[in-house]
Write a structure and sequence with these properties.
By secondary structure, the chain is α+β, with helices and mostly antiparallel strands. About 30% of the residues lie in helices and about 25% in strands. Strand 5 and strand 6 form a beta hairpin. About 25% of the residues are buried.
Length: about 350
Amino acid sequence: MLKVDLSSQKFVGLTPVLLAEQGLKERQDLQRWILNSFDSFFDYLGEGQLQLVGQEVSPSDSVNDRIDLLAVGSDGEAVIIELKRGSNKWQLSQALSYAAMISKWGQGESFLEKARGLTRFELRDLLRTDKGEVNSSQRIILIAEAYDYEVLVAAEWLTEKYDLDIRCYQISLGQDIEQNAVYVSCVCLYPPGDLDQLAISRKGKTGSLQTSKTWEERLLRCENEDARIFFESQLEAKTRKTANDRALAFPAFGTIHWNVELRTKSAFVLQVGRFQTATGEDDESLWKGHLKSPELGYPRGGANLRFFLVAPEDFEFFREIVRNASTLKWIKTSASDPSLGDGTVI
């Protein structure tokens, strides 16, 4: 870690500081620092608006363990935050067990009864604004000084194979002995950012489209004219948005089946669930046969689909499918419900 010495106009190295060497403990020191600056710290990480529920939270009466920090995200998801000095190969396993136990709390009012740290008014406010229910999903944030290979490769596998949301941040401290000051750096080791998120536009526009806070900024940074026209028309028509205001939700009424996010060169679509057409054609064949970029992803082990809209005909075909969403036969797959075998039409 370096600091800038303005008087000499050069970088000056800081002395690395390990929590253990300073006698610091994750729950008594690192946890306290984060709690005392909760909003600032997670805004610095780019984690969006998290609302703190509590610290040292018991996830179940059946265990003696405690969750370091429990929060609620802008989509209503429960966020399990685990802190460690050094590295600990059991950190992810521990967090996963907490997430599983928190899922047993139930959703909405049931979660409200168990949650601690926020007032009932604040949680009710959150329940009103979220498109779904609080605690309908869970995600994990790990913060540690280092990570064993087992943790990172397991996080990657669980994310890619089962569409879990796991973030691994590496925190490091540096001491400026002359100024008696300690500085902190925290970088995301997993997942790595997409290239279009990390790159600076060749046209000189700074920042990334995904980190833009307003739709006006996102539209300005989008380089795909067809995607921009599609989103402009949908925003003008007041198409409903996802709870975090990052994407548009389709169809306009009823169950949301597609979330569409504006990207630098395309539109990214997450299809929630699988379907067949009235003629029996499966969704995979349908999209592959009509999209200019037919590569599909299979989140949640194939229970969902993800793909990109690039060309004008992509957007027009997507509109057509959405208009006819009520005629589609939505399917529960074995990936979404193991008891249903290969696929059951519902």
